[in-house]
Write a structure and sequence with these properties.
It is built from twelve helices and 19 strands. With 429 residues, the protein is α/β, with parallel strands linked by helices. An eight-stranded mixed β-sheet has the order 10-9-8-11-12-13-19-16, sandwiched between helices. Strand 12 and strand 13 form a beta hairpin. The longest helix is centred in the middle third of the chain and has 24 residues. It is globular, with a radius of gyration of 23 Å. The two termini are 37 Å apart.
């Protein structure tokens, strides 16, 4: 993988990504809703697979909770509580001992709390190793170290994605979002211009071997609804699972490429939903003025296909400059995305070095304009950005993005969208 600042003339530093350990984690939290939110954010930021969530005040029997721990078979247990909930958390730890004491290796227990609270929990955690972390950042560092335990000196891909987000901010001077889609993971990382970072790393959610999670969440119809060609569900599932057997395989046909694009849309949407469940401000992610697409989603043959996947999956708002950077390539600017919505036609004015243009955009349409360079946008949308080879893509389809349910209505709409964006030129029925 390569990480650059998004400018062609900037040197690129190659990095070797280690084989990170897949970490299954159980979350245990108290009554305070902030504890649940904190653990959810730590799990997303550390790219953990949250296989179980246990509320310390759960009224289920000790045996039921112990069986849940045994079935989940976690590699680690992450706890957030305060001094008032020690007794309830101790009961949850007793259930953990009943369910996982004979598991090898035993799960480690990580407590995000005051040091005194952690020390009072230590006897209840016996015979498990217990680490106390003062805040979420310390827990994140410890859990990432556990993931790279097989290769202590390696760099995790989620860390590289976060570095790319910081580099994007440094090169543009404004907030930036990096969307990374790989064979097994999907990440959305927002770096703010004023400092701070918001990370969502969704594990077991990619376009390759981990596609089963997305299929379990949205079903075959959730993927099929993005295809501009008709295909029945059994044939689609066969193609998807056959693709999962061949990591890194390149699509051999336009239909295979369309399926990869459809899965990529759904993995990005799943990451956004996970962020929303963790009480992360999704509107801030969608409103980032600069966006960079990396990984497999950045390696589609045509730049317009990467742009369309980002717009459909993330559904950005405002005026956004979009880049892409494949794992084996350099960053390139794609174009400017302008989002408007409403039931009536909207007027947009574009001011650039070439002059001033005004366009009337019909509601529900997707329009691409051949503009270039630095552009100021006024009218129904306001902002500033830089258009690339794809020019300006105006998205007036509405939010959330409407898709008809019936094939007879949806397929013509998808064909029109793909042709407007420049994807699959001349390949539609």
């Amino acid at each position: 993988m390569t990480v650059s600042t998004g400018e062609p003339e900037t040197p690129v530093e190659p990095s070797v990504v280690g084989l990170a350990r897949h970490l299954r984690v159980a979350l245990v939290y108290g009554r305070d809703a902030r504890h649940r939110v904190l653990l959810s954010r730590v799990a997303l930021a550390a790219s953990l697979d949250a296989v179980l969530a246990v509320a310390a005040d759960d009224r289920g029997s000790l045996v039921e909770v112990a069986q849940a721990f045994r079935d989940a078979s976690p590699d680690a247990v992450l706890i957030a509580c305060d001094g008032r909930e020690l007794r309830r958390v101790a009961v949850a730890l007793e259930a953990l001992r009943l369910g996982c004491a004979f598991q090898r290796p035993r799960p480690t227990v990580h407590v995000v709390a005051d040091a005194r609270v952690g020390e009072r929990l230590r006897p209840a955690a016996n015979p498990f190793v217990l680490d106390v972390h003062a805040d979420a950042t310390a827990a994140l560092v410890a859990l990432r170290a556990l993931r790279r335990s097989a290769q202590p000196d390696s760099v995790l891909r989620d860390e590289l994605v976060e570095d790319a987000a910081r580099a994007l901010v440094a090169s543009t001077g404004s907030s930036g979002l990096v969307v990374d889609v790989t064979e097994t993971t999907t990440s959305c990382v927002l770096a703010r211009a004023v400092g701070g970072i918001e990370s969502v790393h969704l594990t077991r959610a990619g376009i390759g071997a981990s596609v089963d999670r997305i299929l379990a969440e949205v079903g075959a119809d959730g993927v099929r609804r993005w295809l501009p060609w008709p295909i029945d569900a059994p044939a689609l599932l066969e193609r998807i699972y056959n693709r999962a057997r061949w990591p890194g395989a390149l699509p051999a046909s336009e239909l295979a490429l369309a399926i990869e694009m459809a899965v990529a849309r759904e993995t990005i949407a799943a990451a956004v939903r996970a962020a929303e469940r963790a009480s992360i401000d999704v509107s801030e992610l969608r409103a980032a003025p600069n966006m960079l697409v990396t990984g497999r989603a950045a390696g589609f043959p045509r730049p317009a296909e990467t742009l369309l996947v980002l717009v459909d999956g993330l559904q950005p708002t405002g005026v956004v400059t979009v880049w892409r950077e494949p794992d084996d390539g350099r960053a390139e600017r794609l174009g400017l995305v302008v989002t408007v919505w409403g039931r009536r036609a909207a007027k947009l004015r574009f001011i650039s070095a070439a002059g001033r243009e005004e366009h009337r955009i019909q509601s529900g349409s997707l329009v691409r304009l051949p503009l270039a360079g630095d552009i100021d946008v006024t009218g129904a949308a306001r902002g500033h950005g830089q258009a690339g080879p794809l020019g300006v893509l105006i998205d007036a389809r509405g939010r959330p993005l409407p898709l008809p349910h019936r094939d007879a209505e949806r397929l013509p709409v998808l064909v029109r969208w793909h042709q407007s964006a420049g994807a699959f030129p001349g390949k539609h029925p």
